[in-house]
């Protein structure tokens, strides 16, 4: 299973916003430079996160993006599910009968992944990595 780059860049963007919470907004151009991703792509990601109530956009000279809640109240699972269409790894998680052996494997994996992601918050990332936690490398496929 591989998550899309939206989750990778969205988590980096939220981490940066968490580092500045609640003091100030971070501009899209600052996020673009810090994360090393195109402006159009970061705007798309931020719109998705705003649609799920994780970030808010503010207009004006000192505008940009900010978190809607404290970093301790936003899980990595919140961010990933906002960007990955609920992260269902196979179709049968939602529709398979309860006695299906293969469906049970996928449900347990899905539940485990979500449990790990929900056990971490933006604040726990800051506590573990501080301001040095942003990887600026680009990996080729």
Sum up the structure in keywords.
141 residues, elongated, two-stranded antiparallel ribbon, Arc Repressor Mutant, subunit A
Structure description:
With 141 residues, the chain is mainly alpha-helical. It has helices at residues 5-19, 28-35, 39-51, 76-83, 92-95, 101-118, 122-129, and strands spanning 55-58, 64-67. Strands 1-2 form a two-stranded antiparallel sheet. It is elongated, with a radius of gyration of 16 Å. The two termini are 14 Å apart.
Query: What gyration radius follows from the Cα positions, in whole Å?
Result: 16 Å
Oligomeric organization of the protein chains:
single chain
DSSP summary: helix tally: 7
Number of separate domains: 1
Question: Helix amount, in percent?
Answer: 40-55%
The SSE order reads: HHHEEHHHH
Order of strands in the sheet with the most strands? 1-2
Structural class: mainly alpha
Shape: elongated
User: How many E strands?
Assistant: 2
CATH architecture: Orthogonal Bundle
CATH superfamily: Winged helix-like DNA-binding domain superfamily/Winged helix DNA-binding domain
Strand fraction equals: 5-15%
Q: Largest sheet, described in full? A: 2 strands, antiparallel
């Amino acid at each position: 299973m591989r998550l899309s780059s939206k989750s990778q860049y969205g988590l980096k963007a939220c981490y940066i916003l968490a580092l500045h919470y609640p003091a100030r907004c971070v501009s899209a151009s600052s996020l673009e430079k810090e994360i090393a991703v195109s402006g159009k792509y970061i705007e798309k990601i931020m719109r998705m996160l705003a649609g799920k109530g994780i970030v808010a956009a503010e207009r004006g000279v000192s505008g940009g993006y900010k978190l809607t809640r404290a970093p301790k109240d936003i899980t990595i699972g919140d961010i990933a599910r906002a960007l990955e269409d609920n992260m269902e790894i196979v179709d049968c998680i939602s529709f398979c009968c309860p006695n299906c052996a293969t469906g049970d494997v996928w449900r347990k994996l899905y539940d485990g992944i979500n449990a790990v992601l929900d056990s971490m918050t933006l604040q726990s990332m800051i506590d573990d990595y501080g301001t040095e936690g942003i990887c600026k490398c680009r990996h080729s496929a």
